Amino acid sequence: MDNEKKNASGAKASKTPMYAHGNYAPMHNTCPPTPCRYTGDIPEEFNGGQYVRNGGNPSMNHENGRDVHWFDGDGMLSGVFFRKGKGKAVQPEFVNNYVLTDILLASRASPKLRKPILPSITTLINPRSSMFKIVYAICRAILLVIWSYLNGSKWSIKKISVANTSIIYHSGRALATCENGPPMRVTLPELDTVGWFNGLMAEGEPEDSISPSLTGFGGPGLMGFLKKWTTGHPKVDPISRELIVYHSTFVQPFVHYSVVPDSRSQEASLEQSEPLFNLPVPGVKSAKMMHDFGVSRQHTIIIDLPLSLDPLNLAYNKPVIEYDFYGRTRFGVFPRRKPDQVRWFETEPCCILHTVNSWDDVITDKGTTVNLLACRMTSAAIVFSTGNIRPPPNLRNVEDECRLYYFQFDLSQAENIISHQWALSVIPFELPHVPQHLTMSATQYIYGCTMSKGKFSTALGGAAKIDCLAKLDVKALISKGLRSPPRSVTGSVDSRSAQEILASNDPDDPIKIFQTPPGWYLQECCFVPRTNGVSEDDGWLLTFVFDESQLDEDGFAPVGSKSELWMIDAKTMRMITRIYLPQRVPYGLHGWWFSEDDVCNQRAVETCRSG
């Protein structure tokens, strides 16, 4: 077999990193809304709604030898719209589209470019990257940004986000996100790109009556540019409809914070109708990689990890992104609209890329306990392995693991001590999901990805393959843990492996696992509730699925490979419907379910981007 054989994306077979290989490889074909075959029944709750998932999909330069990371790449949205027909009839339609960011449009306008404009995350985290290589990559990106203003191109690079992380809905807007820029508005169901959202309005929208005293995210100058960098995981309060975000930067005070009301809401209180923009969060001492945070009805939780993201590291001959095995993880808890009242709680070093849910419990007249569920990793190994880099030696000699953890912060106490911190289960758990209408409250069930074998921090040269969805009764598991607390930090309420849970026939088991057939792998799931459901889990899970038997003998996905969208009954954890898509959907990141009301009640758009 010719070792220079190429797959459908154009990548050569030899030395291709696993996170650019198989169904991780990018898909360049974009598809307008296209009818799909399906087997099974589509519940009427899906009519007029749309499921959309975001993910990095590099649009150029897949040559071997260059650095590549799973988190690199231009944002591509893949979705299934459930178009209403006559009566109860429904027709699922697949659609995918690139998010037309400044970076992507400038790249398309510069056909002579041999490499992406932005440096790969792999370049920034690799201990073997020379200072010259890193400085060259950063300076090259800066020069290309400047050149985009000078070369007469229609699209100058004003924002460097690739909008490849997630997608949410707030106040009549679907917003694609990434933490090195503001959100980008897109349309439903076509997934066309409208423009950058600044917290007040999006480019491409009709001019609105906005107070001239409000500037939205960021402001003038370099500091204003950095303060537009908005978390890839904004939170939307399902009751107040507020959008809560933070902005992590390289310059003191390192973290800013914004709360954006739903300007369409008729039920918001006077306080909830007032926006807060760019408030500093005191107490962060250096630039950090912050990917997610927690938000309850009353409080916000900022997570300060021992994971630096600081260009000044280069002055000390260290990678821009570095994990400190002897550092501390800190949780900054404060009232939603008062970041100046932050209280910092410290614990053992760990890495948290995704939170699951947060909620408040009023326990005394003196205060409240704030609760957090998060996917806790014992190191940042996954950040390196997804860039095909051997993780640094684990200096604490702790096994790499990623588990669902419960944290409790008692604000009624004078001392900032974490009351409880332990795992709910020992199974690997990531890419979590809580039904959107139940977030910020003490839900009974949460969902997420796990594996029958293996772990998320895979060995060098491998890639995580997710063959299971887990459903956890966190209410039962937390109650059990509070009655008989496991060892702090290292303990777990449930010590069974995924295989042991799969073998269980207990109908009241607090953990249930859906497993795909051999060779089939799935992605993050999303919950769609049944109308007038009688229990929290009365609804369905959606997930994109791929059969890897379609791969060729070199492990590449040939042209013509196809994915499916599966519907799984969340009560029984059994598949009920398969939707056959016209093309492959690469393994990606985070998605959102948009209801028929969301789709029908989008804000007006004057222009969309093209190029």
From TrEMBL:
Keywords: Iron, Metal-binding, Oxidoreductase. InterPro entries: Carotenoid_Oase (IPR004294). This is Carotenoid oxygenase. PANTHER family: BETA-CAROTENE DIOXYGENASE (PTHR10543), CAROTENOID 9,10(9',10')-CLEAVAGE DIOXYGENASE 1 (PTHR10543:SF89). Residues 487-498 have a biased composition (Polar residues). GO terms for biological process: carotene catabolic process. It comes from Trichophyton interdigitale (strain MR816). Belongs to the carotenoid oxygenase family. It comes from the Eukaryota. Its cofactor is Fe(2+).
